[in-house]
Amino acid sequence: MLLFQRCAAALGLVGALLLTGCATQRAVQAEVQSYSQLQALPAPPTYRLELLPSQQAQAGQFAAIEAQAVQALAKVGLQRDEAQPRLVVQISAQARTTLPENWPYGPGGGGWGWGMGWGWHRHGGLGGAWMLDRPPTLQYRSVGIVMRDAQTQQLVYETSATHEEVWSNDRLIFGTLFDAALTGFPRPPAGARQVRSEIPTQ
């Protein structure tokens, strides 16, 4: 009976993945936390993007993340101006795989991951092919944005967005997370909230 239940659960998961794989739209549920000292869009609405030394060292990998962040900032009215910035902006992005903590057929935890700008690293994990008694691998992605006043260096805005699911497409997910992190800018709801986005998968 236990083997039958495990097989049924596995077939159900595979069926769900096949169905979602055929969809042209996919919902991305982001956990967002924002904190703002801004009362309005800065005047002029310009910023300088400040990259960490580790991000500069991995410029090839970080270029796509940087472009997605710049695009998201433009959507909320901020213009990149390295010469005359009103704000100094720092961005971050992380990606790793995890296992569900409450998987009924075995322990979770482990996996591998990387932090953009901090290099690659491995954690102890299951690895290999997915088995009936092993939990599905979850794809964890997160982004963060910090803004400071360019003259006073005072921190004026901080926001982050995270997403975890069995499916991931970094090209789509990171851009969606930057958009989610900036919802409500410059006066978002304080604290934690959920932001749901529909993205095309094809």
Molecular structure report:
- The chain has about 200 residues and is an alpha+beta fold.
- Helix content is about 25%, strand content about 35%.
- It contains four helices and nine strands.
- It has helices at about 1-20, 55, 60-75, 170-180; strands spanning about 25-35, 45-50, 80, 85-100, 110-115, 120, 140-150, 155-165, 190-200.
- Strands 1, 2, 3, 4, 5, 6, 7, 8 and 9 form a nine-stranded mixed β-sheet that branches.
- A hairpin with a 2-residue loop joins strand 5 (about 110-115) and strand 6.
- The longest helix is centred in the first third of the chain and has 21 residues, at about 1-20.
- The radius of gyration is 20 Å and the shape is globular.
- The termini are far apart.
- Mean pLDDT is about 80; it is low at about 1-20 and about 105-130.
Radius of gyration: 20 Å
Helix content: 25-40%
State mean pLDDT (0 to 100 scale): 79
Q: What's the helix count?
A: 4
Q: Using DSSP, what is the number of strands?
A: 9
Structural class, by secondary structure, is: alpha+beta
Order of helices and strands: HEEHHEEEEEEHE
Q: What ranges have pLDDT less than 50 throughout 5 or more consecutive residues?
A: 1-21, 107-132
Strand content: 35-45%
Distance between the termini: 40 Å
Tell me about the biggest sheet? 9 strands, mixed
What sort of overall outline do the alpha carbons produce when their principal axes are compared? globular
